[in-house]
User: What shape does this take?
Amino acid sequence: MKSVLIVILFSFFMPCLFGFHPDSLVKTGNNLYAKGDFYHAIDVYEQIVDSGYEASELYFNLGNAYYKVNNIARAILNYERAKKLNPRDEDIKHNLTIANAHVVDKIDIIPEFFLKTWITGFTNITSSDTWAIISILSFILFLLLFLIYLFSGRIGIKKLSFWLGVLMFLISISSFYSSFKRKRFLTLMDSAIIITPTVTAKSSPAETGVDLFVIHEGSRVKVVDSIDVWNEIKLSDGKRGWVRKTDLTKI
Assistant: This one.
């Protein structure tokens, strides 16, 4: 126990003395997790998160640690954050599914328009930065092909450069849009997880508001408005109500 305490103190004070090194702290958290010391592992992981460092692996490990101590709401919150950064990771999706099975509320989901689902899946293929690089490179190729089209004297080459140029232009535009959409998705914080065991949604941002429905910890909601200490939430089945900001944490 004494050695564990030394490790925790070391992880907290060393960054102040020699600069913050998230990789070493992640290893410290992983070692604590491997030893079954989940609470101290959570402390270390949360310190890394509080420093501003983000990585899907970090949130995934933190979600696992919270799941081990039976804090399902916090586990789901961190799995969702990990999925947001790496939506194609099968381990993240698998553990999120397992954690969601513990949630009391089984809320119906209004089917999403298939084209919107397809576009979201397409933009999630890679990162925003990669999409931006593809957009820039394809636009440069478009310019080169355009010059070939203008100055080439052969009809066959002019036709080929024209259609390839059109293709490169379309790729550039679609990649730019994908980069923008992916970046916006990462920075837009309009989804949240209920962290209070039981919450009664109100018809207005006040304790005197009419009780509308009850929602439990672990449920995912969308934040659509905010007034003082209240957030208006929307469930996946379309229901709306007001809850206190302390009852949820944004993903």
